[in-house]
Amino acid sequence: METRSNHVLVGAVVLILLLMLALFTVWLARLSGGNDKEYDIFFKQAVDGVNKGSPVSFSGVPSGQVTDIALFKPDPQFVRVRIRVNDDVPILEGTTATIQGIGFTGVSQVSLDGAVKGAPPIACPEGESTQECPFGVPVIPTRQGGLGAILNSAPQLLERISTLTERLTELLSDRNQNSIAGILANTQRLTDALADRGPEIAATMAETRIAIQKAGVAAQQIGELAATTNGVLADDVKPAMQNLNKAIGAAQKSAETLDAAIGDARPGLQAFSKQTVPEVGQLVSDLRTLTEALADVAERVNRGGAGSLVGSSKLPDYEAK
Questions:
Q1: Which residues contact 71 (CB under 8 A, 6 or more apart)?
Q2: Cα angle vertex 57, ends 55, 61, to 5°?
Q3: Distance CA 66, CA 82 (A)
């Protein structure tokens, strides 16, 4: 009985010691991870190879581990991955998360990268925890990369390859092959014709080069002529313009003097037009009458001589029959 009692006592002491050791280990784990930070990541892709306890790295440096993986019930196309990282890891705004494979073992890890120097840390804004932090911890945005991006784009890539294959098949049909063969034959004939015309083409190119050179020389000469013309205009036209301005000034002064003279002569001109002009008209009328009388006298002298001016004209003699 005493031996059995000793065994029970020893067993009880061992159990107590093991329980204390386990509690001490848990206490140490909590103490070491008490300053760790938790973040949620919502991946819109498969998270193959990521499990609880999978490593988390920041720019390739081990920084934490995955603590939970679950579907996001409000939107099942997202997978929520919760990670715990060390307190000294700079999870700043601009940091993104991707899934990267580790070697060829099929195991993957969560990789963090892209922190911007001087940016504030990612945190839940006050009063909006239900929108931007649905589970009470900050959310790190995702970025497709590596194997995940390739796998996600694989269906579109296969569809494009299939479409390209179909179009190539249509392009290389028998009719199109004949057309391509005709195009190649025509191209060959054109090449042969160009080869035969090679010397003529070379001569044409040489003449074109000479013409371009002459055009350049002509353009240079035109530029020099324009510069000379500008100099002539600057030297000759300016004095001529000055003389012309002086002549215009003198003409203006003459016009002003003429206007003044006309103004002074205007009373005399009015008197001349009112008095002298009518008298001149009467004088002309009298002269016209005198001229007619003199003409009549001259005609009488021509007919009857000078006696016709002092006596009457003789009647013709009458003879009885």
A1: 78, 79, 80
A2: 120
A3: 6
- Give dist(CA 195, CA 250) in Å, integer: 79
Q: Which two tokens stand for residue 92?
A: 């700043």
Rounded-to-integer distance, Cα 48 and Cα 101, Å: 9
Could you give the 3-state DSSP secondary structure of residue 67?
strand
The residues facing 113 across adjacent strands are: 96
CA separation for the pair 46, 186 (Å, rounded): 55
* Cα dihedral 162/166/169/173 (nearest 10): 180
The model scores a pTM over 0.90: no
Rg (CA), the chain: 63
Please say whether the beta carbons of 57 and 152 come within 8 A: no
Q: Which residues pair with 277 in a beta bridge?
A: none
Q: What is the residue type of 195?
A: A
**120 Cβ contact list (under 8 Å, min separation 6):** 92, 93
Alpha helices for the chain (secondary structure H): 2-32, 129-132, 146-171, 174-196, 198-232, 238-271, 277-304
What does the pLDDT profile of the chain (321 residues) look like in tens digits? 556 666 777 778 888 888 888 887 766 655 555 578 899 999 988 888 889 999 999 988 999 999 999 998 888 889 999 999 998 888 998 899 998 887 667 788 999 988 888 888 888 877 555 667 888 899 999 987 655 556 556 667 788 888 888 888 877 777 877 888 888 888 888 888 878 877 888 888 888 888 888 888 888 888 888 777 666 556 655 666 677 677 777 777 767 776 776 666 566 556 556 666 666 667 667 677 767 777 776 676 666 655 555 555 554 554 554
3-state SS class at 173: coil
